[in-house]
Write a sequence for this structure.
């Protein structure tokens, strides 16, 4: 969840705001989409803590001070499953909760307008679509659409570099036909829009060093699952309750097909399909 870094005591005066921006940019390596004060509390904590907060890519960075060049906490929200409705907390603050695979994180803004803005920006970068919120002002909508385009371009660049890096690190690897250089969200969209093409996609993992399997089960209602596949050099390990290690990526794909008795099928775009898998 929230990951801590050790803050070093400051012996020099605070740098100028421009220097702070460049230093944060260098440390995080991610574009800045939104910033401001937020209070945060994750599962198990009794009290909220106020942070100067930045939304960069699909990460939230929390700073103890507005002028601190280095974050004290960070939160990966790329796997966000849902966000609760905005509600007042009784003290004029606006509160909402991020639902993540590993738990929940509660966020609180100074007022409803600020809270709504944070919530909508978070949904924009994680779901890659601007929320259909009728109360958004024209200026806010414009900014969200600009952020959406920046995030889409960032994802494409990241996916391309991940794919190139993975292929260079394993020059003898023959990639299965169901491998696509797409993100988790993009894989889910491909599976949802092209059900006749298959139900299993092999893709780069978000850490750019390993792989992931995204599958779509149809058990009365569609159900998505994601599994990480670690590159061990000469083998590949699937992160299951009991890890499974196999000699090749094709064997990894075959394992899922075999274990589901053929219910899962590798995703392969058919000739003439209009969808672009790299979008």
């Amino acid at each position: 969840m929230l990951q801590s870094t050790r803050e070093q005591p400051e012996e020099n005066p605070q740098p100028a705001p421009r220097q702070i921006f460049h230093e944060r940019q260098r440390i995080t390596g991610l574009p800045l989409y939104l910033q401001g004060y937020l209070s945060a509390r994750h599962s198990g904590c009794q009290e909220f803590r106020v942070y100067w907060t930045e939304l960069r890519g699909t990460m939230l960075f929390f700073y103890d001070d507005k002028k601190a060049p280095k974050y004290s906490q960070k939160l990966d929200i790329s796997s966000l499953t849902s966000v609760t409705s905005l509600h007042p907390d009784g003290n004029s603050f606006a509160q909402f909760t991020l639902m993540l695979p590993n738990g929940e994180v509660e966020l609180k803004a100074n007022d409803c307008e600020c809270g709504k803005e944070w919530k909508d920006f978070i949904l924009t970068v994680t779901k890659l679509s601007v929320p259909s919120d009728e109360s958004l002002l024209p200026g806010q909508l414009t900014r969200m659409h600009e952020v959406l385009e920046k995030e889409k371009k960032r994802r494409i660049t990241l996916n391309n570099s991940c794919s190139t890096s993975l292929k260079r690190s394993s020059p003898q690897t023959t990639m299965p036909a169901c491998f696509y250089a797409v993100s988790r969200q993009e894989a889910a969209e491909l599976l949802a829009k092209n059900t006749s093409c298959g139900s299993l996609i092999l893709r780069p993992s978000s850490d750019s060093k390993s792989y992931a399997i995204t599958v779509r089960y149809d058990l009365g209602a569609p159900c998505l699952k994601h599994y990480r596949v670690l590159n061990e050099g000469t083998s590949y390990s699937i992160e299951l309750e009991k890890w499974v290690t196999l000699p090749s990526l094709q064997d990894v794909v075959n394992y899922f097909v075999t274990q589901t008795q053929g219910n899962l099928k590798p995703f392969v775009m058919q000739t003439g399909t209009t969808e672009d898998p790299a979008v």
The chain has five helices and 14 strands. The first strand starts at residue 3 and ends at 4. The chain has two domains: 3-127, 168-259.
